[in-house]
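Hi R.,

Quick one: here's the Der GTPase-activating protein YihI sequence you asked about.
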Amino acid sequence: MTRQKKSRSTGNNGQRHMPAAEARKLRQPKEETKKKGAGKKSGSRNAIVEQNTAPHAQHNGPKDPRTGSKKPIALVAEPAVTPQIKPDLQPKAKLSKVVVPGLTAAEELAMIENDTQLQQLLERVENNEVLTGKDAKYFNAKTARLEQLLEQLGLTEQADAAEDDDPLAQFERIDWRKSILGEED
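And here's the predicted structure, written out as tokens:
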């Protein structure tokens, strides 16, 4: 017996494969739709336009869309004339000076004495810390205002009287040279 070579073809067991030309014939054709136009046709600007048969359009004659306005244009620019309006020189709103809310000197003094930030800064100064920047400005401003208020209220005289009670301060103020030597300047 002679040997037979195996083939890869399966034979007639499956569906037959149609060639592309036959498949195209069997397909249903697509519906042909009109393409939407995106504007006017080319050359429409120069085409003759059909005029309306309205009575008002007949007496003007055929209108060409290429012609523009017939209004004359000035070749020299003329300054625009604006009507002179007299300005109202009186102010509409009345201005008044800002009124600072009135705190009495005693109330302001109490506020400064109760200021926690100032007390913290004062403790830092007593601990020989050097204040810088905003802290130094705040400390200086508040202490200066405190001195002004004390003078205004007359409380600085009590501080002077307290110094007079200090014997060491009295001793330093006395010029012993004058009393011992009897010199007078």
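The mean pLDDT is 77.

Cheers,
M.
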